[in-house]
UniProtKB/TrEMBL annotation:
InterPro entries: MetI-like, MetI-like_sf. CDD domains: TM_PBP2. Belongs to the binding-protein-dependent transport system permease family. Residues 71-260 form the ABC transmembrane type-1 domain. It comes from Pelagibacterium lentulum. One of its GO terms (cellular component) is plasma membrane. This is Sugar ABC transporter permease. GO terms for biological process: transmembrane transport.
């Protein structure tokens, strides 16, 4: 009974994880490596032959290598947006934590509003068209920064609260300017939360489907998630190709999560526990 109480929740959690995550992933892999006839059955049967390369090359080369273009676009958007998020969120979180003023309440309201208020699609499209950023990759970068900045600011502010102010004062006494204090003293200490922001936001932005669908029309601007939408009609009866596309889109975020899941937890909990 004691053992059941101690390990019961663990067993339930492991079993739930297997059912919810591992079983669907195995189904995707099995279907992706089958031929068209066997994949149409949509079951867990072991394939009699393995046309892996044929399925892979067909998906890659479809529509003039659209998936390759999508990977390039998604990578550019993700790298650009995450870079700006780290720099801007760290600086805002530092200033917000260290400096107290009458504007603190207003800044807190705006940060929370960025988390709670739903995006206004039509006004955003109109604004992007007016400034010439609609249907451009750099416009999509700014959209991702705007939608994810509030969450990153909260993470950085909570973590910076754990860093003693004496470090700032000592650097100022030694003659460091404000930017030197931030970039040379504070920013190197933010590595745990920075890794968390990079990994979480990279996976989120790379997997984003709705925002590119609204703000990034055109085959030349396609992202990896939009390839599923574009290929769905073409591969509607070729489940092996459709699931191969799903597998190719799923693998990069999965690898990132598997390698950095401990850093994600460490960065999220450090500020929460100490702040």
């Amino acid at each position: 009974m004691i053992a059941l109480r101690r390990y019961g929740l663990t067993v339930i959690a492991v079993f739930s994880t297997v059912i919810i995550f591992i079983v669907p992933f195995l189904f995707i892999v099995l279907t992706a490596i089958k031929d068209r006839t066997e994949a149409a059955r949509l079951d867990f049967s072991w394939p009699t032959n393995f046309p892996v390369w044929e399925n892979f090359w067909t998906v890659i080369s479809t529509r003039n290598f659209m998936l390759v273009t999508a990977y390039i676009n998604s990578t550019l958007i993700t790298v650009g947006a995450v870079t700006l998020l780290v720099i801007l969120a760290a600086m805002v979180g530092y200033v917000r934590q260290r400096r107290k003023g009458w504007w603190n309440g207003l800044v807190d309201f705006l940060v929370l509003a960025g988390l709670m208020m739903p995006p206004a699609v039509v006004p955003t499209i109109w604004l992007l068209q007016e400034i010439g950023l609609f249907a451009t990759l750099h416009g999509m970068v700014f959209i991702q920064v705007a939608y994810n900045l509030s969450f990153c600011i909260i993470l950085y502010r909570a973590f910076i609260a754990t860093i003693p102010r004496e470090l700032d004062e000592a650097a100022i006494i030694d003659g460091a300017r404000p930017l030197d204090v931030f970039f040379r003293v504070i920013l190197p200490l933010l590595k745990p939360v920075t890794v968390t922001v990079i990994v979480v936001q990279s996976v989120t932005i790379f997997n984003d489907f709705v925002n590119p669908l609204y703000y990034l029309p055109g085959n030349q601007n396609v992202t990896v998630q939009l390839t599923l939408y574009n290929f769905q009609s073409q591969f509607s009866t070729a489940y092996n190709l459709l699931f191969m596309n799903i597998l190719l889109v799923t693998i990069p975020p999965l690898i990132v999560f598997l390698f950095y899941n401990r850093q994600i937890v460490a960065g999220m909990t450090a500020g929460a526990v100490k702040g």
